[in-house]
């Protein structure tokens, strides 16, 4: 007899050894259902015979060679639901799920072979008629065992459940609040393939879980065909999520994501079927084709997973929704149990052989079970990550704060610098302006000094000329023995006004030399005033002694002591005096400058006085020169023959 399939060792020992290791094969349990009433009625023979607990013998009708298949466990038709539950070692899977492993139990076989019966028991015989507990399938028994196990753990465990079906290559939520609608299958690095927006329901009791199960079963698509009156037309996946929650544990990162922990998934595959055998038409045929395609894709992946070389390469799990959702169970980190279901009828032998070969290959597929890190185990890493994030945030905030400080200080510094520049610039400008004004002031002072010096020099020259002129005139008219009217006339002498007064002089007002007002000085007595012989008409009817001398400075207008303004006759006298000097070298004087108001500033007065003095000096020279020239060229003439304006004109 040919024996295929099963690896060495029984299922129980394999499960007891635990899944953890480099490679763990998919555990396969073969269950042979009893002959159905219909098969018995048709007189069909059984072609399957169990040999021991792990070997199945196939005896083809007609005397063909027997074929033996070895699996982890082989359960004949006499086995009860409880036997199956125990033989499959589902409790061991439950324990692994509690430790955080991802475990999968899936049934495989042709339509009507007892897959649904194995997992969930027989369908209710009528509305309101409960299924006997003895007929409860693996799922209900596992639920009961799990809830009881959780209650005795002594630590809080969160249990949640989801239930979906893949119908015509569409994922539908059997626990959705509304009518089931297609849901997308996504993938990410953390979760692998997952169904988006799948409702995951937390439950705390077996009754609640049973209600969820019944809800899903009632919504699952099923139809009747020749081989099965309640044939499932979809693949159904019920998943239990088991997570430990302690006070020290952190909540899940993504609230919408399933809790990190173990899970236990029950997959009731739709049965493969030959359309010709089931007589499916229309929608049934479409459903059958979809079911067969997905099962073919699953078989293909399993075949590829058997090849060690190709296993490391690409496995086409994306070929169907079913292979996507079973990818982790078949080729990943899960612990997987396959319950292959077959019919003992000879009529189903081809499909049975196909299932047996299929199961035989599957049990050679290995996985690398790896328990996901529990939240407790992830806590240090999570805390470390959070610490790094906080450090990064702290560094970033510190950087921003430093930047703000820099900006603020830069702004303040700019303002200070701006103010300093402005103040410094203003100070510099003030200093420059001050320096410029100082220089200008110094220049003005120098100019004023020069002007004053020039004025003083010119005044001295004028003074000297006038004294010489008066002295000569006096000597020429009165003789050398006469005392001069004023000591300063005899030049050079100290300032006349510094001399002590000698006589009381009612007609004198200002020193003719320095032009300082004098109360009394060396004026001659009235009878000695000169020149009394000159131009009696110019005196204005007054006696000559009452008139001021021609060298006297002009009086201030309106002064009580100045009876008249300087008249032209005064300058005529000067002309006459100049004519007396025809034989001598004399320089006639120009008309004296008027006395300026005392309020005039010295600078301006000095600056304006210089050109006046120069004019006076120049005029005096011209006048004297002209007189000398005329005197040399013409003989003296009588007084009445001359006109004052013909000789000298006042400037
Ligand atoms: N071990 C068993 N003992 C008694 N009856 C069984 C057993 N297995 C299956 N049956 C019965 O066989 C019929 C078909 O079983 P089931 O619906 O579970 O097959 P299936 O593989 O799920 O079929 P499908 O793929 O079409 O859904 C049901 O009436 C079921 O009660």
TrEMBL record:
It holds the Pfam family Kinesin. It is found in: Cytoplasm, Cytoskeleton. GO terms for biological process: microtubule-based movement; mitotic spindle organization; spindle elongation. GO terms for cellular component: microtubule; microtubule associated complex. GO terms for molecular function: ATP binding; microtubule binding; microtubule motor activity. The keyword ATP-binding applies. Residues 1-24, 534-570, 586-651 are annotated as: Disordered. The keyword Coiled coil applies. InterPro entries: Kinesin-like_fam (IPR027640), Kinesin_motor_CS (IPR019821), Kinesin_motor_dom (IPR001752), Kinesin_motor_dom_sf (IPR036961), P-loop_NTPase (IPR027417). Residues 545-556, 589-600 have a biased composition (Pro residues). ATP binds at residues 109-116. Residues 25-365 form the Kinesin motor domain. Residues 1-13 have a biased composition (Basic and acidic residues). Its main location: cytoplasm. Residues 387-454 form a coiled coil. Keywords: ATP-binding, Coiled coil, Cytoplasm, Cytoskeleton, Microtubule, Motor protein, Nucleotide-binding, Phosphoprotein. Belongs to the TRAFAC class myosin-kinesin ATPase superfamily. Kinesin family. This is Kinesin-like protein. It comes from Cercocebus atys. The gene is KIF12.
């Amino acid at each position: 007899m040919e024996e295929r399939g099963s690896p060495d060792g029984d299922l129980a020992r394999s499960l007891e050894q635990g899944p953890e290791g480099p490679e763990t094969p998919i555990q396969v349990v073969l269950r042979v259902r009893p002959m159905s009433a219909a098969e018995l009625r048709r007189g069909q023979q059984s072609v399957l015979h169990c040999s021991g607990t792990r070997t199945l013998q196939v005896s083809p009708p007609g005397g063909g060679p027997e074929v033996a298949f070895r699996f982890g466990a082989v359960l004949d038709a006499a086995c009860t639901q409880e036997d199956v539950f125990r033989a499959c070692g589902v409790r061991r899977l439950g324990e692994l799920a509690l430790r955080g492993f991802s475990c999968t139990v899936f049934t495989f076989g042709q339509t009507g072979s007892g897959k649904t019966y194995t997992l969930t028991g027989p369908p209710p015989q009528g509305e309101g008629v409960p299924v006997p507990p003895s007929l409860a399938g693996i799922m209900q028994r596992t639920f009961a065992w799990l809830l009881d196990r959780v209650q005795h753990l002594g630590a809080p465990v969160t249990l949640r459940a989801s239930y979906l079906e893949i119908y015509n290559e569409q994922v539908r939520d059997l626990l959705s609040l509304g009518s089931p609608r297609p849901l997308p299958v996504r993938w990410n690095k953390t979760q692998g393939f997952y169904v988006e927006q799948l409702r995951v329901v937390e439950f705390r009791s077996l009754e609640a879980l049973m209600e969820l199960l019944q809800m899903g079963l009632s919504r699952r698509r099923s139809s009747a065909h020749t081989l099965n009156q309640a044939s499932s037309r979809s693949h159904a996946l019920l998943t239990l999520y088991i997570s430990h929650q302690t006070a020290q544990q952190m909540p899940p990162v993504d609230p919408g994501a399933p809790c990190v922990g173990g899970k236990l998934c029950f997959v009731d595959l739709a049965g493969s079927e030959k359309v010709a055998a089931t007589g499916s038409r229309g929608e049934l045929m479409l459903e059958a084709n979809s079911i067969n395609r997905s099962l073919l894709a699953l078989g293909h992946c399993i075949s590829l997973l058997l090849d060690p070389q190709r296993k490391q390469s690409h496995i086409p799990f994306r070929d169907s929704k079913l292979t996507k959702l079973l990818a982790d169970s078949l080729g990943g980190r899960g612990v997987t149990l396959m319950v292959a279901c077959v019919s003992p009828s000879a009529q189903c032998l081809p499909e049975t052989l196909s299932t047996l070969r299929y199961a035989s290959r599957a049990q050679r597929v290995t996985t690398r079970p790896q328990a996901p890190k529990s939240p407790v185990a992830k806590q240090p890493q999570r805390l470390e990550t959070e610490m790094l994030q906080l450090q990064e945030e702290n560094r970033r905030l510190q950087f921003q704060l430093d930047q703000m400080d820099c900006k603020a200080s830069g702004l303040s510094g700019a303002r200070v610098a701006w103010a300093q520049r402005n103040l410094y610039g203003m100070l510099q400008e003030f200093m420059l302006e001050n320096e410029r004004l100082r220089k200008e002031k110094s220049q003005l002072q120098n100019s004023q000094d020069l002007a004053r010096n020039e004025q003083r020099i010119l005044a001295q020259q004028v003074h000297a000329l006038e004294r010489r002129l008066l002295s000569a005139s006096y000597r020429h008219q009165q003789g050398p023995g006469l005392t001069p009217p004023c000591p300063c006339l005899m030049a050079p002498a100290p300032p006349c006004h510094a001399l002590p007064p000698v006589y009381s002089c009612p007609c004198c007002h200002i020193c003719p030399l320095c032009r300082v007002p004098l109360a009394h000085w060396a004026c001659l007595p009235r009878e000695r005033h000169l020149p009394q012989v000159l131009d009696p008409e110019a005196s204005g009817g007054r006696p000559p002694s009452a008139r001021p001398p021609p060298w006297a400075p002009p009086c201030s207008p309106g002064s009580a002591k100045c009876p008249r303004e300087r008249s032209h006759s005064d300058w005529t006298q000067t002309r006459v005096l100049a004519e007396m000097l025809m034989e001598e070298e004399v320089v006639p004087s120009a008309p004296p400058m008027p006395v300026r108001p005392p309020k005039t500033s010295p600078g301006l007065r000095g600056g304006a006085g210089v050109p006046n003095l120069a004019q006076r000096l120049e005029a005096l020279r011209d006048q004297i020169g002209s007189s000398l020239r005329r005197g040399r060229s013409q003989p003296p003439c009588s007084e009445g023959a001359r006109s004052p304006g013909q000789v000298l004109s006042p400037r």
